[in-house]
User: What shape does this take?
Amino acid sequence: MTILTVTTQPIEGQKPGTSGLRKKTRVFMTTHFVENFVHAILTAIGGAAEKTFVLGGDGRYFSPQVAQVILRMCAAAGAAKVIVGRDALLSTPAASHLIRLNKTDGGFIMSASHNPGGIEEDFGLKFNMPNGGPAPESVTDAIFEATTTISEYRILEAHDVDLSTIGESSLGDMKVEVVDPVTDYANLMETLFDFPKLRAMFAAGFRMRFDAMCAITGPYATEILERRLGAPTGTVVNGTPLPDFGGMHPDPNPTWAKDLMDVMFAPDGPDFGAASDGDGDRNMVVGKATYVSPSDSLAVLAANAHLAPGYRGGIAGVARSMPTSAAADRVAEALGVEAYETPTGWKFFGNLLDAGKVTLCGEESFGTGSNHVREKDGLWAVLLWLNVLAERGQTVAEILTEHWARFGRNYYSRHDYEALPIDQANAIVENLRARLPDLPGTVVEGLTVATADDFAYTDPVDGSVSEHQGLRVTFTEGSRFVIRLSGTGTEGATLRLYLERYVHGPDGLGDVVQQALSPIIKAADSLAGIKAATGRQGPDVVT
Ligand code: VG1
Ligand code: CO
Assistant: This one.
């Protein structure tokens, strides 16, 4: 087979964001776009010669074609082998696991996660490192750099590899091993959780609904929940991955998983509900008529992880992204373990996990995970919740109520203003940033500003510094808001406003989160002027 050397030139905008490169699918479909980016990845990691990689994705439109390009470029670059999920399918956590299990040199994940899929929607590609985690900023910077200087790439001239049949084949001198996307991951879950106990809980009539939102977790949830744990057929809904996710927006939150919310809040609703995102790394958990905020979910899991076999020895520490509520910090304090605060995005947890400093990590955006892989993991979180429910024999509502009584409650919400003109969003952030030094002591809407800064993170393991990770303003009575721009969108800019208020012990505020937060919402708007600048009456999505 011939290796072709193709002349190309830099394509603008190939800068990886919070989690890989995401663009409109039609942009990815333009000439050389995929090839240029793959070449840049291979350059940034020092070439592919003799290396082994993992390849898979969430099955969205255009993935089959991109998989073939990646295979032919890896073959041309002298890679020894690529392990591919059947039909190029792999959830992000399953890909992370395969990278680690097979001690490979990293992996390519084709996904734009929670962004909708289809020819008119979004596509994405990210590279994970040999530890199974997302490439750190040093590597994504090097990838971007390589996209700006590219002049040619190499690709093998060959027919498509059959990815629909499990087994090994050759592409030039490179081996291609097609594996079942689910088995190894499901086996890993069996080592972490008490499957016999969960089977007994389902056998005793425990009712659950798992909404896979026509994305990648369907096959995983069906195998684990229905086959291995004996949950009734139909427990998993929307379980077949579709190239356009059936037109759904696979973002597991109350807005986009409204069907699930309706079922869970109906009078005869199941005991437990869950949804996951496009690539299976995020989750929403819901009890009977009880919504669990992701920040609370992380805190509850941290407080109860020792109830599951994989975490019996306790946890080493907890990490959360800066905008995530401090609920987990209070648990860490009670357990006498360290709590870490990182910038948004899973790539910042990798060093802490590798160094054994933390066992659990989480983000306010419905992502939680542990040291079992180096990605957040939606189904893992669902199984840990199930294990906790089985051990405690309580409902989700009872567990939450007891948790708040013991640790106090961090009222929390995120308000997203989507698809803003980029200049407008930048101006809101720049204006507030410029005022930060003068804010302490200012009284706004009855609240006094205590501190105001632009979050910068120094990685405690390798000393690398990441600046401009979100503007945060805290008030003297302990509440705060954070503003940052999304790094995963593909249309205009999305402004995220994160709001938090801590109330110690039973508070009489009830379950009216937005009401409890209303003083902070007003103060944030008065300081940042979001409504005035955008002309909008309120956020597009509230979680
Ligand atoms: C969002 C979330 C962030 C998450 C990221 C990737 O990023 O806020 O917490 O890590 O998506 O998740 P941003 O920059 O848009 O706020 V996923 O499931 O898209 O890989
Ligand atoms: Co995701």
